[in-house]
Amino acid sequence: MNTPFDLQKPVAIGCDHAGFDYKEDLISFLEGNGIAFKDFGAFSTESVDYPDFAHPVANAVEQGEAAFGILLCGSANGVAITANKHQGVRAAICWGEELAQLARQHNNANVICIPSRFVREGDAEKMVHTFMNTPFEGGRHEKRVGKISC
Questions:
Q1: Number of other residues whose CB lies within 10 A of the CB of residue 22
Q2: Where are the domains of the chain?
């Protein structure tokens, strides 16, 4: 796979209870493509608090331990808000392939947040594939992205 991410590092993946089934499907997708990953949970559909899983994924991305991150919850809002508290993280909510592409091209996003209650299963795989294979355009977007961190 020709990806702009360093896949010598694992992909960090995490979810809450609402995203558990999609997370398991995405893990199968990653495994099927020979992509290493680190699963930060949740590990069942039992109700949990999304920050408990979003922070470890964001930490792995921020510290350079992960190539990029994947977070899932019902709306993706909770995990995105949590991940974006980390200075080195640019987490983008995506519910379609075009948004995943633009998040990478224009925002240099390094965490994709998927709303499991609002996308179909196969679409989540397509979005992750698009996200991980789309390079940042730089250019006029570089200055804008540079202004994101506080």
A1: 23
A2: 11-118
Give the Cα separation of 84 and 59 in Å (integer).
11
> Where does residue 27 rank: exposed (0-12), middle (13-18), buried (19+ CB within 10 A)?
middle
- Active site members: 73, 106
CA atoms within 13 A on the CB side of 146: 6
Structure tokens at 31: 């495994």
Note the pLDDT tens digit of each residue in 102-127: 999 999 999 999 999 999 979 999 99
- Looking at domain 11-118, its CATH superfamily turns out to be Sugar-phosphate isomerase, RpiB/LacA/LacB (3.40.1400.10)
Peptide bond into 12 cis (omega under 30): no
Percent of the chain with pLDDT over 70: 99
Q: Is 133 left (phi over 0), alpha (psi -120 to 50) or beta?
A: alpha
pTM: 0.96
User: Are 133 and 6 spatial neighbours (Cβ–Cβ below 8 Å)?
Assistant: no
Is 9 within 8 Å of 69 (Cβ atoms)? Answer: no
